[in-house]
């Protein structure tokens, strides 16, 4: 018979916990600002592609040709889904996901929180899959010039940056603030 480790908590899902960064005094604020910067960068990349698409001109050697492709509403849908997933995931109270939290562990509250967490992750995964499929089907298979393929690459980069922002914000919300005290009896 083996003796369990002293630092093992049976309520945890993973045996390896996320590393704590003790040398940063304001790690929560740094994480929130980094997530906000990634969120802004993601939308700036996509808005840049939208502006380039709106002002695209035919080549000078064929001024009467039309521009082969533009950013349309279909290109906006993956970013909208990923942004909604980011909001849903980070609006969930993390204590409600645990089976024995400060809310008494009511099964209906836990079940609802986990359902909304699943919906948020499904929206984010669907947004990323949609942007990759849009890149392949609309821009790469049609064999457009690289300046037109940039619209699809910007869409994929937007969704990846939004997913990274969600992860950073999730981890930053778990970081303890300098104003919190952890008392254990």
UniProtKB/TrEMBL annotation:
Bilayer topology annotation: Multi-pass membrane protein
InterPro entries associated with the record: UPF0220
Cellular-component GO terms for this entry: membrane
Keywords: Membrane, Transmembrane, Transmembrane helix
Keyword Cell wall biogenesis/degradation: no
Entry's transmembrane regions: 30-56, 76-92, 113-141, 153-172
Coiled-coil regions listed: none
Pfam families per the UniProt record, alphabetical: UPF0220 (PF05255)
Locations listed in the record: Membrane
Family affiliation: Belongs to the UPF0220 family.
Listed name of the protein: Related to VPS68-Protein involved in vacuolar protein sorting
Organism of provenance: Serendipita indica (strain DSM 11827) (Root endophyte fungus)
């Amino acid at each position: 018979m083996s003796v369990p480790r002293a630092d093992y908590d049976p309520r945890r899902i993973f045996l390896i916990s996320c590393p704590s960064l003790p040398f940063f005094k304001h790690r929560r604020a740094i994480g929130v600002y980094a997530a906000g910067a990634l969120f802004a960068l993601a939308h700036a990349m996509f808005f840049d592609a939208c502006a380039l698409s709106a002002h695209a001109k035919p080549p000078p050697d064929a001024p009467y040709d039309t521009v082969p492709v533009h950013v349309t509403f279909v290109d906006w849908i993956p970013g909208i889904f990923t942004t909604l997933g980011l909001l849903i995931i980070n609006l969930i109270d993390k204590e409600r996901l645990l089976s024995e939290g400060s809310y008494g562990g009511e099964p209906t509250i836990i079940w609802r929180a986990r359902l909304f967490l699943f919906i948020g992750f499904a929206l984010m995964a669907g947004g990323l899959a949609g942007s990759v499929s849009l890149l392949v089907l609309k821009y790469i298979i049609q064999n457009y010039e690289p300046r037109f393929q940039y619209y699809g690459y910007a869409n994929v980069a937007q969704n990846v940056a939004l997913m990274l922002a969600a992860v950073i914000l999730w981890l930053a919300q778990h970081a303890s603030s300098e104003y919190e005290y952890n008392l254990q009896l």
